[in-house]
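Pilot study result, target chain (239 residues):
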Amino acid sequence: MDNNTSGQGRNATVPPEIDRWNWGAFLLTWIWGIGNNTVLSLLALVPVVNIVMPFVLGARGGAWAWRNRRWASVEEFQRVQRHWARWGLAAWAVFVVLCVGLLFAAAAWTRSSEVFVLSFERVQADADAVEMIGTPMETGWPSGKVEQSGATGTASLAYAVSGPRGKGTVYVEASRSLGQWQIDREVLEEAGTGRRLRLDDSDDDDGQDDDAAQPRTPADGNSTSTPSARALRTSATVL
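Predicted structure:
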């Protein structure tokens, strides 16, 4: 008597060694479903439903595949499902590697961008920043965005900076006009204390033009008598 009930639909008796978690169905969802005549797997393409379908397919996929398709034996079914599991693992491994690679490529491109280079040069050249952080300085991976279209563009970045004397975070906004980038606003915030040091030469939005003969303005907008006496203060204002 033939005990192979595969392909008999709902009337098929599912062997216990098949009615267990199916990694191929869990990892490849609707792709696995097409190869195993399981139409319900296409629900994995429906928004919101696709959140739970991988788990449903992982739990019930083996039984559905047995009922929906004729298999030569239980052994053949298990062998094919092992192949699906390997393909699923390989596909996800490639996907993760590609995502990580893209993230690193994007971060590396941002770190080598003209905006980042200009910003870090300002930090290294600023006497008060050197006093706060020390030299040599090291930077972390920048976060934010750099958008460029032809001769124009905008950028908003943040990155960590550290040295022998301390650590901090640099926040910078820049714009590109006529093919050239310029720093609009740049602030160094000291870690732990929250003290902020303004690194750009612009005044606060008070309608006054920059004066090269005047000392630079700190983040709170109050001028000091000499550049060396520039105040460092804790600021809750996001520039």
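One observation from the pilot: The chain has two domains: 9-109, 113-234. A full batch analysis is planned for the follow-on phase.
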